[in-house]
Amino acid sequence: MTDAHDTAADSPLRTTGGAPPDDGGTGGTSASRAAEPVPLLEPREGIPPVIADADGLAAVVAAFAAGTGPVAVDAERASGYRYGQSAYLVQLRREGAGSALIDPVACPDLSALGEAIADAEWVLHAATQDLPCLREIGMVPGRIFDTELAGRLAGFPRVGLGAMVESVLGYVLEKGHSAVDWSTRPLPEPWLRYAALDVELLVDLRDALEKELERQGKLEWALQEFDAIASAPPPAPRKDPWRRTSGMHKVRRRRQLAVVRELWEARDRIARRRDVSPGKVLGDAAIVEAALALPANVHALTALSGFGNRMGRRQLEQWQAAVDRARALPESALPLPGQAVAGPPPPRAWADKDPAAAARLSAARAAVSARAEELRMPQENLIAPDTVRRVCWTPPGTVDAASVGDALAAHGARPWQVEQVTPLLVAALAAGS
C-alpha cells in the first residue's frame, strides 16, 4: 500500500510540478508548464468500499486513529436536490490508513471518528462549505488547513480543487460529478471514484502550498485564517430569509412583500416535509411573479409564469391560499420594505449622508486595493470590505495606529490583517477628515 507521503519513486506526484514562481503565483514552474498534466483516473488502492454499518465504521475509526499526519477530509452534499445542506458522503484519507468513504445516512453519528482524529490537522478545500454539514454528524476539527484559502493567499488565479491540483501537482482531476444528486442510493461507481480522488492528493497539495506560503512570508497569515475558521461559532439563523428570494428588487409594495413571505414560507414547509430542494417545489421567479400580480383567484394564478398546466389543482390552491393570506393581512401586519441593517448605510448613499465619510471610504478602498495587488491576493482576503466600511463610517475618536488597530480587531480582523491594513486606514481616515 502506498499513500500521499511515499517516496518520489513510488508516489504518483510529478516531480516537475511545483509552487508558483516568484511573480506571485500565476502558474506552475517553467518545468511544470512545459509538461502535460497527467489525468488521475484511479485511486492508488482502488475505490474503497462505502462504509454503511457500525462494524465498518469501527474499523475506519481504528485505522484513522492509528494513522499519522494530516487527514484529508471532504463531504458531498445534494444541493439542488434535497432540503438543507446535509452530507451524503464523507471522504477521508490519512497516511497509514488509506482512503475511506462513509455513508452518513446509514452512519449518522460520526462523532467517534471525529474524536479519533481530533488532534490531527484536517485538510479541506473550501472548508467553510463543508464544516457545517460535518458538524451535523459530529465531526468538529480542532485545526484545519484550507487549500482553497491557501491558494488565494498565495496568489493563484484559479483556486478550485481541480485547478490547484493541476497547477501545483500536475494532475488532472475528473470533475464531471460535482453537481450530481449525492443522495442517490446506491451511489454509482464512477461517482465513488470521483469522490475518492477528491482526497487522493489533498495532503500533497497542502504540503506544496505550505512551502509556497512560507516562501512568500505568508504562512503565519494563513495559519491565523485557518484558526479563525476552525474556532468560528456556527452562524446564527438568518433573519427574514424570504427576503433573499431571487428577483426581490422588483417587489416594492408592502402587500407584494407579504405575498413573497407567505409563498416562501409555504414552499419551505413543503420542501422540508418532502426533503427536496425548495426550488424544485416552486421557483423564485414564480414567487415574484405572483407577488407582482396579486392574483385574485386560482384562474388568475394559473395564467402566471411558473403556475402553468403542469401544476395540479391542489398545488395551485395551496399557492393561492398563501396569496390570499397575504391579501387579507391588515396594513399593520405587512412587512416593511428593506431590512433593518446594523452598521453603516449602503456606500452609494454616503455622499449625501456624510460626504466626509464617503471621502474616507474612497481613500481607504484605493489604499487597500493597491496593497492587495502588491501582496497578490484578493482584496477581501486582505480585509473584509464590511470592516473597512464600518471603520470609515464610524472612525475612532483618535486616529492613530493603536485606536485604528483596536477598531479593526473589534470587527474580527486577524493580527496579520491589523498589521497590514492599519497604516492604510490611518492615512485614509486622516486624509478624509
TrEMBL record:
Domain of life from the UniProt record: Bacteria
CDD domains with a match to the protein in the record: RNaseD_exo
Boundaries of every HRDC domain copy: 253-333
Transmembrane domains' residue ranges: none
Classification via PROSITE patterns: HRDC
Residues in coiled coil: none
Chain intervals for the UniProt region annotation (Disordered): 1-35
Classification via Pfam families: DNA_pol_A_exo1, DNA_pol_A_exoN, HRDC
Family annotation (InterPro entries): 3'-5'_exonuclease_dom (IPR002562), Exo_C (IPR041605), HRDC-like_sf (IPR010997), HRDC_dom (IPR002121), HRDC_dom_sf (IPR044876), RNase_D-like (IPR051086), RNaseH-like_sf (IPR012337), RNaseH_sf (IPR036397)
Low complexity compositional bias, start-end: 14-35
Protein name according to UniProt: HRDC domain-containing protein
